[in-house]
Amino acid sequence: MTRKTPLWRLAAVAGAASLVLAACGDDDEPSTETTPDEEPEVVETEDPAEEMDFTPTPLAIGSLLPQTGALAPIVESLESAVELAVTEINAASDGLITWDAADSGTDANVASENVDQFLTGNYAAFIGAAASGVSTAIVDKVQDAEVVMCSGSNTAASLGVYDPYYIRTAPSDDLQAPTLGDLIIADGHASVAVIWRNDEYGVGFGESLAEYLAAGGIEVPLAQGYDPQVTSFSDQINEVAASGADALAAITFEEGGQLVLDLQGVFDGQLYVADGFVDTVGADQLGGDTTLLAGVRGTYPSANPAAGEASFSDRFAAAFPDVPTIFSAHVYDCVVTIALAVQVAGSADPTVFVDEIVGVTKDGTKCSLFAECLALVEAGEDIDYDGASGQLEFADNGEPTLGTYDLFEYDGEGVQANFDQVETAL
Questions:
Q1: Same domain for 188 and 156?
Q2: pLDDT band at 236 (very low <50, low <70, confident <90, very high)
Q3: Left, alpha or beta for 269 (phi > 0: left; psi -120 to 50: alpha)?
Q4: Is residue 11 in a domain?
Q5: Which of 12, 49, 156, 393 gives 20 to 30 Å between its CA and that of 411?
Q6: pLDDT tens digits, one per residue of 175-202
Q7: CATH number of the domain bearing residue 145
Q8: How far apart are CA 371 and CA 380, in angstroms?
Q9: Number of domains in the chain
Q10: 246 lies in which domain range?
Q11: Residue 85: is its pLDDT beyond 80?
Q12: Are 140 and 182 in contact (CB under 8 A)?
């Protein structure tokens, strides 16, 4: 991708060019000659580039996150991450950025109505939506409006085709499926059933996982989707038990709680889950008995990756004590990436700064905090932002090419306990 030169640098070059033209003169003007005994008069001028001061470009953003609906339990983590990013950017730039919040509802209709305020107002971008299915429902409208949309929690593989105005910092399930598959294979299972919710999140993840396991020599006797509105998993569980599988991988949201309840006494094999389950299944979905989760294992995009900016988790905890960190690092990086692209472009016009988004995440001088990166941009340097969620290294379509995942197991009280962290690359 061609990196645009910031506007202040263009102005400096233009100023220098005008001086060169003036010095060349015109053929009709008389010339002034000097004799060998005469010293030519030297006129000192200031470098026009030195006279130009870099002025940060202000911008307004929105957030379209699930204040209501199935993903409402994680909204505090997401909105707090936006707030932290905005606060830190403003501290480094004398109030550069403003932010307004709206509800995605975890519902396509709610999100479609509420996103309009960000598409018709003076907004450079918005953060969201949280659910892949909700983002899929509004992304065409966003593309048509030419406003930048960045999700820190969408993982559906199908969303990778919506560039340039759709980007995400959460890695695609094209990366998570092999990670979960490797965990299952390493645990020594010979036969694994895979079921998934029939939506943008579940289908891509589930099908990729089943294919990965089969390619790894694991028998997959059952691989099928289910209606996300299901109220009983009895039929699916009976099929899993009859298949002879010794493990079940389930790609779910909150209905995963009902799956756990229905598994009791019918299937005693190992259960594997992923981020959608972790985000939405708790005591309310389990009849108050979280001990039913004991021994369930899975993968989750890391909120505190080893390659991420080291102080983020402490800063987040200090600003928002007791707030979970689910996808917080990824959402934070959405805000910072957009703000840096605006500064490099010297414009808050999405049709202009969208061309800088990929570039600020790769092939430049490394930086990890907004203030640090802004100083490099001011000095005219290309930057490579490695943020709270780790190295982004966007592909040309605005997709992270690296993903860091926590491997976890629920303990005897049903508390998620991480036991390893792995990085997966495309």
A1: no
A2: very high
A3: beta
A4: no
A5: 156
A6: 999 999 999 999 999 999 999 999 999 9
A7: 3.40.50.2300
A8: 14
A9: 2
A10: 175-304+404-425
A11: yes
A12: no
